[in-house]
Amino acid sequence: AGWLHAGLIHIVLNMLWIRQLAPAVAELYGPGRMVIVYTLAGVVGFTFTSVPGRYIGFLPLIGGAQLSLGASAPIFGLLGALVYYG
Fold first, then answer.
1. CB burial of residue 70 (10 Å; 0-12, 13-18, 19+)
2. For 34, how many CA atoms within 13 A lie in the half-sphere containing its CB?
3. What is the Cα–Cα distance from 40 to 37, expressed in whole angstroms?
4. Which of 12, 18, 33, 40 is 20 to 30 Å apart from 83, CA to CA?
5. Strand, coil or helix: what is 2?
């Protein structure tokens, strides 16, 4: 889901954030590790939204989503990698 997007504005905004964060993460950790951080953050982030959506979707604040897409979770993973380093 971290490689899919829901529309043109969604693509543009995610690309702007990735353009800001990815070079800094690649410089600190290396390009290979940056891709690993991006991918793992996407897997973990979408697991934490999809599993609650499937099994406890009836709860109002922690219900999650049945389907999700976009690079929000991987972008926050890149941001977290920068915060951890700094």
1. buried
2. 16
3. 5
4. 12
5. coil
Q: What CA–CA distance (Å, rounded) separates 72 from 13?
A: 10
Per-residue pLDDT of 24-54, as tens digits, reads 999 999 999 999 999 999 999 888 877 777 7
Query: Which residue bears the tokens 């529309």?
Result: 7
How far is residue 73's CA from residue 52's CA, in Å, rounded to a whole number? 16
For 84, the token pair is 């951890």
Q: How many CA atoms lie within 13 A of 37 on its CB side?
A: 24
Question: What does residue 71 show for φ and ψ, rounded to 5 degrees?
Answer: -105, 20
Q: Distance between CA atoms of 20 and 78, rounded to whole angstroms?
A: 10
